[in-house]
Amino acid sequence: MGKKDYSLTSGNIYKALISFMVPIIISTLLQQFYNAVDSYVIGNYGGVGELAATGSTSSIIHALNALFAGISLGTTVVVARYRGSGDYENINRSNSTAIFFGFGLGAVVVSFGLIFARPLASWLDVPLEIMDMSLDYYRIYLIGFVFNAVYNITSGSIRALGNSKATMYYIVVSSIVNITLDYLFVAVFHWSVKGAAWATAIAMIVSAVLSIRKLCIYDEKINLNRNNLCFDKEIALNITKLGLPNGLQVMGSSISAVLSQKYINLFGTYAIAGVVVSNKVNSLINAPTHAFSPSATTFTSQNLGAGNYDRVKQGIRIQLIMSLIVSLSIALPIFIFSKEIAALFNENTYVIKEASFYIKVLVISEPLQCFSHIYNGTLRGGGNTIMPMFMTAFSQCVVKILFITIGLSFCYDIKVIYFSAVAVNLSMALLPYSYYRFSNWAKNNNLA
Fold this sequence. Notes:
By secondary structure, this protein is mainly α. It has one domain. Helix content is 82%, strand content 0%. The protein contains 18 helices and no strands. It has helices at 13-45, 48-56, 58-85, 88-115, 117-123, 131-160, 165-188, 192-216, 233-265, 269-290, 292-305, 309-336, 338-343, 349-364, 369-381, 386-410, 415-438, 441-444. The protein is globular and about 55 Å long. The two termini are 33 Å apart.
């Protein structure tokens, strides 16, 4: 395939993984960075109410994003398998199918999101003083969401080919667009939350267009054109079979966040603003370690397709060590300077105090996520998307909601919600690790 061929099936594992993951880490960081910029600009050029409005329905937005981020792994597994076996015809058919799939399902999901916007906001107990601003942000964001759905799925295809640099470049471009428009719309034009939402929506459109274009001109063997443009029902079903459980798993995690948001909203506008800041910082903290999950999926899928079983086992150990080093390197300075970081987003002392405390709680349990990302990613790469779905859903829905419900019944304090993150991360670390080590899955896939 020439110089654009990126394979994870041969050569030094450390070098291959670093070359593949660094662009993913940068891409993920940039995605989270331009999301954080929304909050930074709103918090500094708006006020606490505007800042809270961007986060009061954010759990719904995250749930929708999670669905398609999860489904994209179905595309990743399918394309990576074809890449490992050298089946270029089906790579093109899969890429074409993925684009149509993303637009179609994205449009359906967005339609329901717009129709039920106000009932959802009311159910979430969004404070009346920020209700209209919250709905403005949510509705405008959804306009660009269809394109974000397509980007998630097509970027999964590009990464499955072993090329993580291209998606990094697209995120760089969309980040520059988003940050520029954020300042222009909010700080200059004073469009408040509407401006921040429009900036993000336009940036999502840009990233989708760039990723689709890449699949059209990838190289001489992998390129979409009028001759191979199609919607293959069998491939679509395979993508759904592999991706939907993961999408529902990640969405299930976000649904628990929706329920948590309902509890958070009960503590008022200032508490919501504090959580918004904490979540933005946490997204930046998580970004590097989250990149190990698609890396583990792609690495495992390509090598199983090529029959490199020992290489998969080596890859698991190496990725776990690398992710722990990265996680601990980030956690320490964030913990030390949590107050100063929180103050960047808003000058209100209550918001800073709550955000700083919550950031410290999140940082403490961050290294536990490494086990979840590596072992769940490996299982998905081996075609097992059901167990990661159930294990994550149990941790995020059952463990988290029980912890919050029981905890608040004994102590009605928002800190109960903060500490639920520790319980969830502990459960999410132990379950996939235990399943890989003690079930028959590894043995059945020649990985024991």
